[in-house]
Write a structure and sequence with these properties.
158 residues, mainly alpha, three-stranded antiparallel β-sheet, 4 helices, 3 strands, 73% helix, 6% strand
Length: 158
């Protein structure tokens, strides 16, 4: 689908030509990842709000939380684009705000929560439920990145 209204000179348009089937599979798996990320954050906030372990785990959790905010903004942008039926042809700005925020926010969240898992596995500062929540955040961020990145990379400049 090509939108001539958006094809102003100087604004690069990016289009994804992957099949609908692959788009759907990758998108659903990526959705599972960000849902796991947010579920881990909620579980950790409910069960781990009593001091949040060490300063290192607290700082890493705040990075994870900030990254999740970027993922949330990206998901909202993706939903908005889908409603407007412009999810396959985007400007560079739309591409970065939607898929870019989701993919790289998820990667940052996975890296930060992996650090929390590592610190907690070595020194056992958190409860078992909080450790599971950290693992859930890590797995969710990693899954969201792994399946969202191929969609992001499928966009080519027109």
């Amino acid at each position: 689908m090509y939108l001539p209204i958006l094809s102003v000179k100087g604004i690069g348009m990016y289009e994804s030509k992957i099949s609908d089937k692959r788009w759907l599979i990758l998108g659903l798996l990526s959705d599972i990842g960000w849902i796991m990320l947010f579920a881990g954050i909620v579980i950790y906030m409910v069960n781990g709000a009593d001091g949040l372990g060490t300063v290192a785990i607290s700082a890493l959790f705040l990075v994870t939380l900030l990254s999740a905010v970027f993922v949330l903004f990206g998901v909202i942008a993706l939903i908005t684009q889908r409603i407007r039926k412009i999810d396959r042809v985007l400007t560079k700005r739309q591409l970065v705000i939607s898929f870019g925020f989701v993919v790289f926010g998820a990667l940052t969240a996975a890296a930060a929560s992996m650090g929390s898992v590592f610190v907690d596995a070595l020194w056992h500062y958190e409860t078992g439920v909080c450790f599971i929540a950290q693992c859930l955040m890590y797995a969710g961020g990693l899954i969201c990145f792994a399946f969202g990145y191929p969609i992001f990379k499928s966009f080519k400049r027109q």
